[in-house]
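Page 47, continued from p. 46.
Same chain as before, 362 aa.
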Amino acid sequence: MAELIRVRPRWFWIAVVALVAVTVAAVPSSAQSASRSFFGLVPNDDLGAADYQLMREANVGTARVGIFWNAIERSEGQFDWALTDQRVGDFASRGIAVLPTLFATPAWLANDVAMPPVGSDRQKQAWERFVREAVKRYGEGGTYWTTDYPIDFPGAAPKPITTWQIWNEQNGPKHFLPRPNVKKYATLLGIANRAVNAENPSGKVLTGGMASTPTGTGGIDAWKYVKKLTKKKSARKSFDYVALHPYARNHREIVSHVKKIRRALKKGHKKQAQVWVTEVGWSSVPGESPKLSTTLNEQAKRLKKTYKALNKGRKKWKIGGVYWYTWRDSSGGICDWCPDAGLVKRNLEPKPAFNAYKQVAR
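Result:
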């Protein structure tokens, strides 16, 4: 075999090394991908091209998007995915993954969107059908990625949804009527888990984000809720990850809330389950809320300290991602401090918090 060996000129090996380096750089590793997905955002509804461009500049990896049942299935059995297609496609085509929150019971099935569909066989069957349809459309191998997506976003790489968040703040009275009920939520979660597994066996189920200490009659602290939820084996097996909304005065309080959830998961025999912080934030206008309102510069400092602390402890505390609430300031919101919690102002002028986010997510 010695006669087959050829001595290559030096320029040849330099070219080979350069080509390998370029190839490796062009293909992101799974570690790089996972790192980027850690930095999430809860965006506004009315987004334009300039919003998406700024999000890319800020290195946003994942967007938490509501998939609202009441808007999609307004009449029983009639599904209209047009608005959701556009929203999911807008993010995916820009390389931003989507974490969907499945929520909002339609009017033909309940008197309020926050009424969980578990009170009758009809409600349960309708809920399972809706979840299955959503997974069939946007999950791995979903029909959207091979039909409408290539037409609306030619040349863009698909980004199928792999994790499904079920409901929102179910431990508080505003989003789970008539009041929080762990047993009912376990039923809701079990049905959703069955639906996800039926259509996409590798898909993951994330609980609705729980407010650490919800206000209002019947609210249950997140860690107490998790303890109750994990008492039964059937409930433990119905989810992969737990979501938390640890709104607090500072990053130290947030870390303490994460630790409490971790202890609850350990006691509930789910110590390997990740914790996802699917909402966290502060307003940049002082006085709106004693706990969650501050100044422009202090908002940025709190953001930076929170992301750094949770990123540093992501392996130890098994944190799957952190989502800032919200993207852009608005004229109104569901809480007193929400309108000024954005990373950018209403006119898209970046705040100090935008630069802080960009720095920690780079």
